[in-house]
């Protein structure tokens, strides 16, 4: 009976109730959407590198090593000598090792020297390998493979020439040894998209005529350089895969105690967690803002109920005259608010999935964040339950006011 009264009352005020439900639904969709993006961004962030057991570089901080070796942010404090790299490579625990050399750039994009093993062993997003839909990998000394963002930003295509600049903010270019774009890597949503990849030997080749960070004035023909021994003397870092996960900590300890030079080995997952904790403040602030939007919508619902009380005084007085107890009126108002919250929660959930279906491909292509479309998690259902419960509690304030309205006040005609 009271349910039918509540539904009938809501229908009688369809426009006002509909606008209130829409406001709450949008706030619920925003809250759940922020939570979905937060968890998806965290997963995508953690999936930037997968399948790599250790990252080895010069001794510094684990986050710093992760930033410059994986995210191309910042610079290494020092290099790792080639001899040390060979010693680590010779360890029986090592299954594969990929050296990387950083330091040069191309129009603000980092240039990374590595081997063909990088394309074989670098994995992201749970084990996905790099794909080169256009062109091929590093086959010639002066081949360059560029990421999707580099190609899109600079309008490059396979076969275009590309000149590497010395350092990150240098006006000096290695224009005497231009590269040719051999391939373009498919979009990954990782720092690889913003990287120009050349061979480790190519990094040595373009610095043949350089001494102490400046051009020597001598120009060695490219044909002569091709015949030279271009084995590097140092690298920036190395990605390491071990034969057994049980050997990771033993190898890490051996590298960190390496007596020949100070080097550091970090677990990518642990370093990623440390890095995520640093940006966790912004994450918390984002959740707080979206929660405040929900609270504001609930306050708006309470204001709507308050404003309708004066219009409904006579209606409530008639119910009292027909035998309805004050608690019935209180329960009616709470039930109306709860029904609105339930409909708003379901509508907000529907809006969220509609947004995911529409925005998933665009967000993945633009930001590299994969938004999975899956059933609501227990956390989502709990959040919806909290919203519905908060709506019921919020409605108690105007409901208690209505509870105190006297029958005489309702029947009195005001002039």
Automatic annotation (TrEMBL):
Pfam families noted in UniProt: FtsX, MacB_PCD
Primary localization: membrane
Transmembrane segments: 12-34, 285-309, 329-354, 381-403
Cellular component, GO annotation: plasma membrane
Domain of life assignment: Bacteria
Keyword ATP-binding assigned: no
Alphabetical keyword list: Cell membrane, Membrane, Plasmid, Transmembrane, Transmembrane helix
Domain MacB-like periplasmic core: 19-205
The UniProt record lists the keyword GTP-binding: no
Entries under PANTHER family matching the protein: ABC TRANSPORTER PERMEASE, ABC TRANSPORTER, MEMBRANE PROTEIN
Official protein name in the record: Peptide ABC transporter permease
